[in-house]
Write a structure and sequence with these properties.
The complex is a heterodimer of chains A (548) and B (373). Chain A is mainly α. In chain A, 69% of the residues lie in helices and 6% in strands. The chains are: A mainly alpha (548), B mainly alpha (373).
């Protein structure tokens, strides 16, 4: 009952709008021909100011139908109160506040009329109904705009009162529309129109379209139909569609969580994979790994300082630069310290921790102890909109892809190249490899350099996600170790899977546990896990294990 | 596994020597405590006068030294490199902090006789269950031992039984303290969140801000260090200590001979955690605050470096390292605040590369070369 009454009211309003919309649409084709005289405009405004009820609406419709270039401006002026009545001369003027006075301009903005004190001017009286009418008028004008975003805005404005748009116009617009987004918006406008129609058949037809659209508006419309519709068939179908939609929305929410998880996981994998090489392949605990990541992030910053006008290129260039730079630092660390500590993992741990402190302090002393600004190039910012419920941020998507590419390249390097063969030989049996002529000490420093270089690349990726500062690396060191240990030392696939698993687990728990508690729970889980399976998810088997 | 190669050189096989160094250490420590107490009473103009600031500072160092002994007990003699001992230290500190918070009573900012200020601020109406009994000193003293001890027991029970050792154990101890840090930062935990516990007034009815009480706390720390030293020293002389050293040097062989390696590790690890808890409980009233920053992984690693520098595998070396490094830290952060991390970082590298036995190792080397000549 309440719905049908509501629909009736809307119908009456729509009827009153029909005439003027027809006018608006017809005039526009013949637009910009005659600049209608100012007298006619004045006449219409007089009717608007002095008239009553329907007369005022008609005056506005007529004004819209005049086909002036500034119609929208005038209508907005009435709506926003920029047009005022000058009491002495009884004319309508544009009034702009200037201190205590108003500067006045004639309606066509051709003549300056001097300024006047506030009390000599009065606002045009606009009732709520007129306000709604004005908005629809402005919106329908926008429907024919050349700018797609303006058309979209106009359609959005009509969503509340879709019946204001005549069917014929809607069909015509649908036929001529070329922009995909605008067509989609028009279709959903049409569906909304049908959903409010008094005929149950039309409402049923509308439901099938509305079911496809997961936006908030359409879902709430379906919900309203499901709860209040007078027709049983419509009510049942709407109820079913509403449930379907809710299920889909839940599904997409899950998909989004998984995406966030994968995104966090890709960061973890990037951070951990360099460690997986130095720790897994060489058995070296590198506590300075986080600081190497930090140095990589600073490389991005430095490249951006060098070429501030080309952010995209500087980001791409900073990948090799960071790889080489941190790789060099890594080799330097290996040659100067770690070389002397092979076979003494606990000592290596302490010495590299000392190096991490030195690297941090170097950055603090020579660059700044504050965070440095790293800009995101245009192609990194933006959103990939899958539908109205699910949208993926591009930077996270790129980093996910980047992580997989780095992983694949590394895998190919280790499995398919001569260098990779030698690395694996040294890690499995050092003395045998030496006996076969592998220069084990050179392989050691190159392997460590490779791990460090990948840490640098991870830093480039991280610089696009978080703040770049001297403490950047510290936040990742514990996590990276967890990823490597969870996955199984010496197993790159294990690192990938464990990183992604931990990322998703973290994000799945966040909604009900909160970010920090989720992280704690993951840590506690890992501590328990290592107790159960000390060698991780995918342990190394065979003799190689004993050789470590 | 590579454990055997990571261990410290075994202590001298001559018990008389190490007994002599223990006696020298104990006498020095007693002399230090008495000396500082007397010099503190001198008039301020006197050249030997020790200021109140210095007394509190030394008291703080002594609690660090206790912590260092705890780490040395498990690392130097048992081969477990714990990167999470600061967690046990901080837990002991928090237990003490809770007691001190309750002692504030209705003198807090909000004047609530039952609830500490931060709980009133968070609109809590009653004390959480785990704060029960914290107003009783005897109960608190018990919890200072029990909380870190129990955590270490449970943690160690799982870890040692599944034979997690070496680097893996180090990393999960670090994860443990990291997880605790994150947890204590949460306001919902009921330990004051970010700000921790502070604004203490009195302990056992003594005003914590008075100079005599501060001297008293210094003496208490010194005596505690003395007792802890004696306890650890006698354990290490006992059969238990010999088995511990055997485990450090060749864990598998010890197990094959028939010793229950897990039980020995567990007992010493839990004992070490309790000692760390005592250190934390003495530390908090002297510095007047405990916050989650104490759980930071860096803190735990710093302790390890004190022990490494002083010389692991010798108890007095751990104490020397703790006192020396912390004095250097105070001096550096005053004179060249920028340079402290450089110095600390270099210390890590130099000690591991050049001084695997620490300063104590240097002394011992000198002595044995003299004995040889």
């Amino acid at each position: 009952m309440s719905l049908s009454l509501h629909a009736l009211q809307r119908l009456i309003r729509a009827a009153s709008l029909l005439t003027m919309l027809a006018a608006v649409c017809s005039f526009h084709t013949a637009s910009a021909d005659v600049q209608t005289g100012i007298d006619e405009l004045d006449g219409l405004f007089t009717r608007f100011v002095e008239g009553k009820g329907a007369q005022r609406t008609e005056a506005l419709d007529a004004l819209a139908a005049l086909g002036r270039d500034d119609t929208r401006e005038l209508l907005t002026g009435i709506l926003e109160g920029d047009l005022m009545l000058h009491k002495e001369t009884d004319t309508i003027v544009w009034a702009t506040a200037q201190g205590r006075e108003y500067a006045m301009q004639s309606l066509d903005r051709q003549n300056d009329l001097g300024s006047e004190r506030k009390r000599k001017l009065s606002r045009l009286k606009v009732t709520n109904r007129l306000r709604g009418h004005l908005r629809s008028l402005i919106a329908s004008l926008g429907l024919r705009s050349d700018d797609a975003t303006e058309r979209l805005a106009a359609i959005d404005a009509l969503m509340e009162t879709p019946e204001a748009l005549p069917d014929a116009t809607l069909q015509e617009l649908l036929g001529s529309e070329t922009d995909k987004k605008v067509s989609a918006a028009l279709l959903s406008l049409q569906a909304r129109k049908l959903a409010l129609s008094p005929q149950p058949e039309q409402r049923l037809q509308a439901l099938s379209t509305l079911g496809e659209d997961l936006s908030n508006d359409s879902r709430s419309l379906v919900q309203t139909l499901a709860e209040n519709d007078s027709d049983e068939a419509v009510k049942t179908l709407a109820g079913k569609i509403a449930r379907d939609q809710a299920a889909k929305v839940r599904l997409y929410a899950k998909a989004e969580t998984v995406f966030f998880g994968l995104s966090l996981g890709s960061v973890l994998v990037l951070a951990a994979i360099g460690l997986a090489i130095s720790f897994g392949v060489m058995g070296v605990i590198n506590m300075a790994h986080g600081e190497l990541i930090m140095l990589g992030a600073y490389c991005t910053w430095a490249m951006q300082q060098l070429m501030p006008n080309n952010l995209g290129l500087s980001l791409l260039l900073s990948i090799p630069v960071a790889f080489l730079f941190t790789g060099m630092v890594g080799i330097l660390i290996e040659r100067s310290v770690i070389r002397f500590l092979y076979g003494r993992p606990l000592e290596t741990l302490l010495a590299t921790f000392g190096i991490s402190l030195i690297l941090q302090q170097l950055v603090r002393t020579f660059i700044s102890s504050q965070n440095v600004p790293v800009a995101n190039p245009a192609f990194m910012s933006g959103v990939l909109e899958v539908n109205s419920v699910l949208s993926l941020t591009l930077n996270r998507l790129y980093i996910l892809a980047f992580c997989l590419i780095v992983f694949a390249l590394l895998l190919i390097l280790l499995k398919r190249s001569r260098f990779g063969l030698e690395v694996r030989a040294v890690s499995q049996n050092r003395s045998m490899a030496r006996a076969m002529g592998v220069p084990s000490s050179r392989i050691d420093s190159l392997t460590f350099g490779l791990g460090a270089g990948i840490a640098g690349i991870a830093g480039v990726a991280l610089s696009q996600l978080t703040n770049v500062g001297p403490n950047l690396g510290q936040a990742y060191i514990v996590d990276s170790f967890m990823v490597v240990v969870f996955g199984g030392v010496g197993n790159l696939w294990g690192t990938l899977i464990s990183g992604m698993t931990l990322g998703i687990a973290n994000k799945l728990m966040e909604p009900w546990a909160g970010a920090i508690l989720a992280k704690i729970l993951v840590l506690v889980f890992l501590i328990m896990f290592i107790q159960k399976r000390p060698r991780g998810l995918f342990p190394q088997r065979g003799r190689a294990v004993e050789a470590h | 596994m590579s454990d055997s190669s990571t261990t410290a050189p075994s202590t001298s096989a001559r018990p008389q020597r190490s007994r002599l160094s223990s006696i020298i250490f104990i006498l020095t420590l007693i002399a230090l405590i008495i000396g500082v107490s007397i010099c503190n009473q001198l008039p301020a103009e006197h050249p030997l006068y020790v200021s109140n600031y210095m007394v509190t500072l030394l008291g703080k160092y002594l609690t660090y030294a206790i912590l260092a002994v705890a780490v040395d007990l498990v690392w130097g003699y048992l081969g477990i490199l714990s990167l999470g001992h600061a967690a046990f230290f901080a837990l002991g500190g928090y237990v003490m902090g809770m007691h001190l918070m309750r002692q504030i009573g209705d003198r807090g900012v909000y004047g609530n006789p039952d609830l500490p200020d931060f709980m009133v601020f968070l609109n809590w109406t009653e004390l959480p269950w785990y704060w029960m009994g914290s107003d009783n000193f005897a109960f608190t003293a018990m919890m200072i031992l029990l909380v870190p001890g129990l955590l270490a027991f449970v943690f160690g029970w799982f870890a040692f039984r599944s034979r997690v050792n070496g680097v893996y154990l180090s990393i999960i101890t670090q994860a443990l303290t990291y997880a605790l840090m994150l947890a204590f930062f949460r306001n919902e935990m009921g330990f004051g969140g970010n700000n921790g516990l502070t604004d203490f007034r009195e302990l056992l009815g003594f005003d914590l801000r008075s100079d005599t009480v501060r001297l008293g706390l210094f003496i208490a720390s010194g005596v505690a260090l003395l007792l802890v030293f004696l306890l650890c020293d006698s354990i290490l002389r006992s059969r238990l200590g010999k088995v511990a050293i055997a485990i450090r040097d060749a864990e598998d062989r010890t197990r094959f001979i028939g010793y229950r390696v897990e039980s020995v590790k567990l007992a010493l690890f839990a004992l070490s955690a309790m000692i760390a808890g005592i250190a934390g409980a003495l530390y908090v009233p002297q510095v007047g605050i405990i916050n989650p920053g104490e759980f930071a992984p860096l803190n735990s690693i710093e302790v390890v470096v004190w022990v490494a520098i002083g010389g692991r595998g010798t108890l007095y070396g751990a104490v020397l390292g703790a006192l020396g490094v912390n004095y250097a830290k105070t001096w550096f952060t005053g004179a060249f605040p920028e340079a402290w991390l450089f110095a600390l970082g270099l210390l890590f590298v130099v000690v591991t590369l050049l001084l695997p036995r620490g300063v104590a190792g240097l002394l011992k080397f000198k002595r044995s070369s003299q004995a040889a000549s």
